[in-house]
Design goal:
The chain is an all-alpha fold and about 220 residues long. The protein has 2 domains: about 60 residues, Homeodomain-like (Arc Repressor Mutant, subunit A, Orthogonal Bundle), CATH 1.10.10; about 150 residues, Orthogonal Bundle (Tetracycline Repressor, domain 2). It is built from 11 helices and no strands. Helix 5 runs antiparallel to helix 11 and helix 6 packs across helix 10. The longest helix is centred in the first third of the chain and has 29 residues.
Length: about 220
C-alpha cells in the first residue's frame, strides 16, 4: 500500500528532527574530543543508539563530518553576509568579513579545523555533484555583499573580478590567522602578537586595499 502524502511528510519531519539531534550531539563530541577522535561509535554511544541505527541517517563517518562542516560553514557565511550588507561602504565590508569570520571561530578552533580538513578530504564532495551544488552558493554569502559594496563605491562602477578577488583574499587571510592560531595552540607556543592586534592589522591592510580599489579602478 502506498503511503499517503500526510504520512510521508510526517516521516520526513521525524527523520529531519533525528538528523538534527545527531548533528547536535556530534557538535558536542567535536568540541570535547576534536575532529580526529570524532567517530560514529562515539556519537552513537552519546545518543544511546547502535552504530547500525546511525547508518540509517549517515552511512559513513565522512558523510557525518561533511554535514557538520557544511552546517557550520553555512552558519558563518550567513553571519558574514549580514555583517557585510550592514557595512556603510566597501572598505568597511572587507573589515566586517574578516572580523565576523575570525570572531566566529576563535572560541572554537577545532570546528574551523574540521572545515579545512573536511573540504580537502571529503569523498562526498569530490564524487557527488549534488553535494558540490550545496557548497557553491556559500561563496555568494561570503563574498557577494562585499563585492556589491566595493562596486558601488568605485568610480568606474563596472563589474570586474578585482572586487570579488579582494573579498576572496580577505577570507583567505582570515582563515590563515585562524590556522596559525590553531597551530600554536597545539604546540603550546603562543604567538608574539595577541589575537586583537593581529585582527586589527589584517583589517587595516584590507581597508586600505578597499580604498585603493575604489579610487583607482
Amino acid at each position: 500500500m502506498a503511503r499517503s502524502p500526510a504520512n510521508t511528510r510526517l516521516r520526513e519531519r521525524r527523520r529531519a528532527g533525528s538528523r538534527q539531534e545527531i548533528l547536535g550531539v556530534a557538535h558536542q563530541v567535536l568540541a570535547e574530543a576534536g575532529p580526529i577522535k570524532l567517530t560514529l561509535d562515539l556519537v552513537a554511544s552519546e545518543l544511546g543508539i547502535t552504530k547500525q541505527a546511525l547508518y540509517y541517517y549517515y552511512p559513513s563517518r565522512g558523510a557525518l563530518m561533511f554535514e557538520l562542516a557544511l552546517e557550520e560553514l553555512l552558519a558563518v557565511a550567513d553571519e558574514v553576509n549580514r555583517a557585510c550588507a550592514a557595512a556603510p561602504d566597501g572598505p568597511s565590508a572587507l573589515e566586517a568579513l574578516i572580523r565576523t569570520y575570525v570572531e566566529h571561530f576563535l572560541p572554537k578552533l577545532e570546528v574551523h579545523r574540521l572545515i579545512t580538513i573536511q573540504f580537502q578530504e571529503s569523498d562526498e564532495l569530490a564524487t557527488a555533484s549534488k553535494e558540490l551544488a550545496r557548497v557553491r552558493p556559500i561563496n555568494d554569502l561570503l563574498y557577494g555583499a562585499v563585492e556589491a559594496k566595493l562596486l558601488a563605491g568605485a568610480r568606474h562602477r563596472k563589474r570586474d573580478r578585482r572586487a570579488r578577488r579582494l573579498a576572496f583574499t580577505a577570507h583567505v587571510a582570515a582563515m590563515g590567522l585562524l590556522t596559525m592560531r590553531a597551530i600554536v595552540e597545539k604546540l603550546d607556543d603562543p604567538l608574539l602578537h595577541d589575537d586583537a592586534a593581529l585582527l586589527d592589522e589584517l583589517c587595516r591592510i584590507f581597508r586600505a586595499a578597499g580604498v585603493e580599489y575604489e579610487r583607482n579602478p
